Amino acid sequence: MSSTGSMASPPSASLRGLEAVVSFAIFALLGFMGFMVRLFSVIRYESIIHEFDPWFNFRSTKVLVDQGSYAFWNWFDQRSWYPLGRIVGGTVYPGIMYTAYVMHALLHTIGFKVDIREVCVLTAPTFSFLTALAAYLLTTECADSAAGLLAAVTVVIAPGYMSRSVAGSYDNEAVAITALVATFFMWVRSVNTGSTRWSVLATIVYMYMVSTWGGYVFIINLIPIYTILMIFSGRYSHRLYVAYSIFYVLGTLLSMQIRFVGFNAVRTGEHMAAAGTFAFLHLYCAVQWVRSFVPKKSFAAITNMLIAATIVLIGTGVSVGLAKGYFGGWEGRFWSLLDPTFAKRQIPLISSVSEHQPTSWDSIVFAVHFTAVLVPVGLFYVFRNVNDASLFLVVYCMFSVYFVGVMVRLLLVLAPAAVMLASIGFSATIKPLIASIKREFLSSPVPENSVETKIEEILATPEVDKRQTRKRKGPPTVATSPSMPSSILSAGPGTLPVVFALAVIGLLCLPLAHYIRHGVWTASEAYSSPSVVLSTRNPDGSRGYIDDFREAYYWLHENTPDDAKILSWWDYGYQLAGFANRTTIVDNNTWNNTHIGMVGRVLNSPEEKAFRICKKIDVDYVLIVFGGLVGFSGDDINKFLWPVRISRSVDTSVVEHDYLTSRGGYSIGDDAGQAFKDSIMYKMAYYRFHHQSYHDNQGGFDRVRHRHIARDEISLTYFEEAFSSKTWIVRIFRVKKFSNRGFRTLKFP
Predict the structure, then answer these.
(1) Do the beta carbons of residue 382 and residue 528 sit within 8 Å?
(2) 645 is a domain residue
(3) Three-state DSSP class for 622?
(4) Kind plus residue range of the DSSP H or E element containing 50
(5) Average pLDDT rounded to a whole number, residues 133-157
(6) Where is it predominantly found (predicted)?
(7) DSSP-assigned states of every residue in 374-425
(8) How far is CA 513 from the centre of its chain?
C-alpha cells in the first residue's frame, strides 16, 4: 500500500456542513435548556426581583429607562441614608443597568413592548447562554473543541454559577461572570496569536467587566501573576509582550472611564501589581534586547545599570506619591482576602456580610459537585502537554480555590474554572475509549501486513511483550472467548476491547448525569426562592408560601406618610426603598460605617436611649425581622451580635460581653445577658410573644432558638406596635411623639 493511500482523506464539504449544522443545533438546544432551567421562580411564584442588592439595581434601571442617562448619572437618592442621601451616579457599577436598558430598547424597536421589570428578571437567564459560549471558546483555546463543548454543557447548569443566574437574580454577577470568562478567552487568544486585534477586544470586554462588578480586580491581578509566571518559567515571547502591554495600558485607560473607578485604577493598592508587572515586563524586554547585541563581558554591567535605574526611578515615584497622598491603600474587602482575620479585627461590618464568610467544604462540594474530582484529572492532562493557554487556566483555577476558601461569594469565580478543567480531564479520559469504538466499527479494514498495522501493534504492546515480539518475530496473539464474537470482545491493533470501552464510558457518564440532576435541583429548590417570599412544606406535603415581607412593605406604602423615615438593620434597606418607596436610614450599600453603627446602637440600647437616638435622626418607624413564631432562622435576633460589634465603632461604651451569658454564650432565656434583655431589639421581637403558643408548648417558646424567652411580660413606653405580619416575621413599631410638656414628662398609658 502506498503512503498516500494509507492516509485519511480530508473531510468533505458535506461532512463539514453537517458538522456545522450539528454544532449549531447543540448550542441552540443548550441555550434553550440553560434559559428554561432558570425559570422555576417565575413559574412557581411570579416575575419578581430576588434578594436585596438587585432591588437597588432595579430602581436604578427604572430611573435610567424612564428619565435617561443624564438623570441617571446625576441622580441624588433622597430615599436612602437619611439625612445624608446618596449620589448614585458616582457610587455604582452601571454595567448591568445599561445592559438591561439596551435589551429593553432593542425589544421595543422590534415591536415587543415589554416592561423593564420583565427584562431585568430575565437578564441573568439570557446571559447564561453567553457564559456557556465563552466557556466553550476558552476551553477550546486551551484544549480542543470536544472539551469545549463539554464545558459549555456543564457550566450552563453549574450550581455555583446557578446561584446568580436564575430568573429574578438581577445582581451584578449575573452579567459579570460572562464578562469575566469572555475577557479570559480574548486574553488567552491574544497571547496565543500576538494579535493586536485580540488584545484590543480583550480590553473592551474588560471595560464592560469593570462597569459591572468590583470583582474586576481579580482579572487585573490574575493576568499580571500569569505574565510573571510565564517569564520566570521561560515561556516569554513577543506575543506575551504585545498582549500584556496593550491590555494594561488600554485596559487601564478604559476602566478609568467608569466613574466609580476613575483614578483608583492607578492609585489604589489592588491595582499596583498590574503596574509593577508592566514595568518589570519592559525591563525584562530591554535586558533581552541588550543581550542580543552587547558582548557578554559588558552585558552584566549594562544589565545592572538598567535594573538600578529602574529601581531608583520607580522608588522615587512611589515615595513622592506616598508623601503627597496620591497612592491609596487596599480596600477592606481585598485586605480580607490576603489576611482572613483582617475584617474581624478591624472592620466587623465586612465580616457581618454572609457572602464574606469563609467557605465550608460542603458548600464547595455543593457548588462544583463531581467536577471537584475531575479537576485533578484535568490538571494531569494539562501538565502532560502544557501550553501557554492551558497554563493560564491552571493559574485561574488555583487562585480561585484559594480565594474561595476565604470568601464564599467567590464560588462564582471558581465554578467556571472547575468546570473547564474538569471538562478537559473528562474529555481526555474518554477520548481513547471513543476512538477504540470508532476504529472497531467505523474504520475501514487495514491490510494485515501494512506498515500502519505493525506500528499500532508495537505501540499497543507492553514493554515485556515488545521484547518477546522482537525475539519471536511474530505478531502478538490476543486471547478470545468462544462465547463472544471476537469483533466485540477483542480489540484491534492499538484499541481497547469494545465492551470494556463502553462499560467505562457508561460508568463515567453516571456521575455526569447525577451532576446534571443536581444542577437542575439547585435551580429549582436552592436558588429559585425570592427572599421576600418564603417557601414551606405543609403537613400534607404540599408547598406553602409565607408572604410576610411584601405584606409589611405594602402596609408601609399604604399607611405611612410619603416622607416617613424607617429604621431597620441595613439588610432590608434596598427592599424598603424598592417595595415601600419610603426613606431609609441605612441600606445595603454599607458605605458609611458610622451611620450603620448608629443604627446598631439603637437596636442594642435600652428603650429610653434608643428613643433619644431615634428622635435625633428623625426616625418615624422601626422595622425588625423576627422568626421565633414560625422558625425563620434568618431573623434579627440571630444577627444581633453584629449590631453590637459594629456599634462599638460609634460608642466605645458598648461591650459585647454584657450581651452574653455569664459563660460567654448567646441565649434568649433567663440566663441571657442583662444588656440583651433590656435592648429594644429584644423587647420589640418578643413584645406580646408570651401570648403565642405552638402546639403543646407554653407561650413564649422561640422555635428558632428552641428556648422560652426570659420575660413573660414586656412593656414599651416610647414605642408602640404599629403592624405585625401574619406570621410575625416582620414587626413594625411607631416611634411616639414628644409630649407637649417635654421629654421628662413623657407618660403614656
Answers:
(1) no
(2) yes
(3) strand
(4) none
(5) 94
(6) membrane
(7) HHHHHHHHHHHT--HHHHHHHHHHHHHHHHHHH-GGGHHHHHHHHHHHHHHH
(8) 24
The mean-pLDDT minimum among 36-50, 70-84, 92-106, 704-718 falls in 704-718
- Judge whether residue 547 has pLDDT over 50: yes
pLDDT for 643 equals 93
- Distinct helix (H) and strand (E) counts, the chain: 33, 11
Grid cell for residue 277:
508587572
32 within some domain: no
Predicted confidence (pLDDT) per residue in 214-259, tens digit: 999 999 999 999 999 999 999 999 999 999 999 999 999 999 999 9
Q: What is the CATH number of the domain that holds 572?
A: 3.40.50.12610
The identity of residue 66, as a single letter, is D
CA 225 to chain centroid, in Å, comes to: 21
Run of H or E residues at 31: helix 13-36
Q: How many CA atoms lie within 13 A of 347 on its CB side?
A: 20
Q: Is the entire prediction scored with pTM above 0.85?
A: yes
735 beta partners: 719
Residue 474 has pLDDT above 50, yes or no: no
* Radius of gyration for the chain, computed over Cα atoms and rounded to the nearest angstrom: 32
Burial of 26 by CB count in 10 Å (0-12 exposed, 13-18 middle, 19+ buried)? middle
Q: Does the residue 629 lie in any domain?
A: yes
Q: Are 95 and 213 in contact (CB under 8 A)?
A: yes
Please state the domain count of the chain.
2
CB 93 within 8 A of CB 172: yes
pLDDT band at 696 (very low <50, low <70, confident <90, very high): low
Question: Cα angle vertex 223, ends 365, 193, to 5°?
Answer: 110
Say if 634 falls within a structural domain: yes
Which residues have CB under 8 Å from 582's CB, separation 6+?
A: 79, 556, 557, 560, 562, 564, 565, 566, 576
- pLDDT value for 437: 80
Full residue range of the structural domain in which residue 189 is found: 176-329
Which of these three, 297, 329, 361, is where a domain ends? 329
- Contact in structure between 364 and 372 (CB atoms under 8 Å): yes
Which of these three, 329, 355, 386, is where a domain ends?
Answer: 329
In our burial notation (b when 16+ CB lie closer than 10 A, e otherwise), range 470-486 reads eeeeeeeeeeeeeeeee
